[in-house]
Amino acid sequence: MQLKTRSETFIEEICDIPGGEGIKRCIQCGTCTASCPNADKMDHTPAELIAMARAGMRREVLSSNAMWYCLSCYLCTVRCPRGIKQTGLMHAFESLAMRDGVSYAGSFTPTMYRSFNHFACALGSMPEFGFMTWFYMLSNPLRAWKMIPIALELFRHGRLSIKARRLTPEGTKQLRAILEKAETLGGVT
User: Fold this and answer.
1) 120 closest CA partner among 160, 174, 162, 176
2) Do residues 119 and 127 lie in contact, with contact meaning Cβ atoms separated by under 8 Å?
3) Which pLDDT value is given to residue 5?
4) Which residues constitute the domain of residue 84?
5) Domain count, the chain
6) DSSP calls for 127-169
7) Cα–Cα distance between 73 and 89 in angstroms, integer?
8) 104 assigned to some structural domain
């Protein structure tokens, strides 16, 4: 039998991240798991992930694929009898995993976050075409080629902008302050 690594401060660390504060109120009823449309794709269900986190199983929680499969649909949050913001917990787990350099190989979420921050900070705007091109080139260049017909259709119907509207200098300054604050709270750089 192999002993699991237990972190006594893991639960406190989760509680310190916005969205993680409700973890101690969980009664393990399983409503979050029953509500989750992606629970069958997760190696640990949302309820299991909470139990593991409360047991201090940091390595196991942060290496799980569960938080990367969260759709942020908020069904779990709406249905939780204890009012726990499970989606916020999943984002807190993501934040800790990224901070520790742990990511699920099948997820491009960290790349998406980094691409967003890159464009938002560098340009003070979010040009959809440039942002998505950058994201696909970083995450899966072959998929970028497959997306060209979709991009052309979106552009043809006025649903994809090539030219970004820039923020005012004051707006850019405020955006950078928000992103810097998010980073100090556990966001991705």
Assistant:
1) 176
2) yes
3) 47
4) 10-99
5) 2
6) -HHHHHHHHHHHH-HHHHHHHHHHHHHHHHTT-S-SSPPPPPH
7) 13
8) no
